[in-house]
Amino acid sequence: MARPGSGLLVPVNGLGYPPQNMARVVVWEWLNEHGRWRPYGAAVCHHIENVLKGDARGSVVLGQVDGQLSPYVIDLQSMHQFRQDTGTMRPVQRNFYEPSSAPGKGVVWEWENDNGSWTPYDMEICVTIQNAYEKQHPWLDLTSLGFCYLIDFNSMSQTNRQSQRKRRLRRRMDLAYPLIMGSIPKSQSWPVGGSSGQPCSCQQCILVNSTRAASNAILASQQRKLYSGAAGNAGTAGTLTMVRQSNTFAGTSLWSSTSVSSGMQSPLSNSNFPCSPVMPSLSSSHGHHALTINGQNNLNRPGTQRITMGAARGTIPPGVPALPVKNLTGSGPFHPALAGMTGILMCAAGLPVCLTRAPKPILHPPPINKSDMKPVLGVNGMCRKTKKKHLRRGKNPEDVVRRYTEKIKVVPDEDCTICMERLVMSSGYEGILQHKGIKPELVGKLGKCGHMYHLLCLVAMYNNGNKDGSLQCPTCKTIYGEKTGTQPPGKMEYHVIPHCLPGYPDSKSIRIVYDIPAGIQTNEHPNPGKKFSARGFPRHCYLPDNEKGRKVLKLLIMAWDRRLIFTIGTSSTTGESDTVVWNEIHHKTEFGSNLTGHGFPDPNYLDNVLTELSAQGVSEDNLKD
């Protein structure tokens, strides 16, 4: 059934915050490796809120409500999620949404992944999709949110605008997220001080405390002006008292007041600043003016200062100073506390202030026509595929070991670092492993590096590896022969696009697209016969189209042919097992920014990735062969 109305190109942001005396929906979120805030489920959020009511400085064991989250614990004092088996820590935040939004109604939007299961969208995207759905838009473009996807509500599908790949999506009902009333909770974006009452002495907390002291002084001054003005204007009909909330620090109510006669226009009204997201909107009801404030600082979100509005997000009006605040680590032009203090002082002087929203990662370039994709200079073709026939198996283990070692007549009295027995003694694998022609007491020296081991130990190490005809010294990692990996079959595409990367204004860009489908593990993988998942494919990566960038591409193609780019294992970020993961060769997946650390500018990246490729046995010397 077709949905009436026009499509939505720039989505309406539904994340505006209601006034402090109204209800809010609470969603707890964690920060993933791509800089995206991923929501916990509604049941988990209810559990966290219940623990928070009892002990705001305590810990939340997520496995008590969701068995799949049993390794995870949230420390409410430091606002971090801790994975007990790996030690991985991730920031968490307590975010607020309108009760009428998707989380308040229990609506969940999900897309179908390669494994056939369903993955929920980020909460911000879920809210945006639900808003468009309720307004009966036939489609929704997510480009403005940093994703090159088009949502089609008629076919309930998501289309990648670059690869044209389609995925199913669905809308389902679940438990509504917890609802809270009352004042906005204090920020917990950094560890709070102890219960002794002694303030923290770190530089960040000193700045925050000094800013709060300044805000309290301004608040007292504004209140005195308000009371004196109210006494002087008592009995004046039609006087509008307009209250403006400072959006600088969570947990600190900063108010300034201005009296405006009913026959006059407020100098800070939306008629003067129609696009300013921090300017209050005034509405009329029964002849009296009412105030709607849609905005709240979100220092609960580490690294983000976000100002939103219930309607469309606009631009900053001319003449209004903007204070960009990027994150709490100081990478922005201003320290957040300094920007906040400046904003408070400017508000006290009656000057309008607009805090800019922290930028989002630019993951993809603008849309590109196929005719604009050109071959890379000096590289044959634009696509490579790997299949099982690309595997090269070596001869039997004894032949491989003998090929790269020399026999030692005089054996030194030192340890074999494989079995930890003395070299003058028999191998620790004696009685466990038997091979004709290799006695347990034989010792060999690797040709390039000179490290010595029992030959039987080298055979055992080879049998436990990929058995591809190569050896790697366990001490210095020197590779003998051509090392290959266990990457599943897939496709690698590469071409030049007419856009430049940050830091390379004079060069076009090389785009690499990896695509590996889900499948069944084979004997070379951890769990033969079991399915493996492939999350996030196709994956887009970028290099500058210059001499060194083209050299890196050639080596990456060689590593792809040797099946070294990916492997099957356990994700270090999500903890999911039996999934396709990167194999120690870093790629840049962020095109137009470097907010997540996986983008540009990064002047050392090309040299670093050359070193990583060399560690896998793929070096510039191979290009000369």
From TrEMBL:
Record gene name: dtx1
Keyword Zinc-finger: yes
Residue ranges occupied by any WWE domain in the UniProt entry: 14-94, 95-171
Predominant place of localization: cytoplasm
Pathway the protein acts in: Protein modification; protein ubiquitination
Enzyme class: transferase
GO function terms (MF aspect): ubiquitin protein ligase activity; zinc ion binding
Domain RING-type: 416-477
Protein name as catalogued: E3 ubiquitin-protein ligase
Subcellular location: Cytoplasm
Protein family membership: Belongs to the Deltex family.
Record's keyword annotation contains Cytoplasm: yes
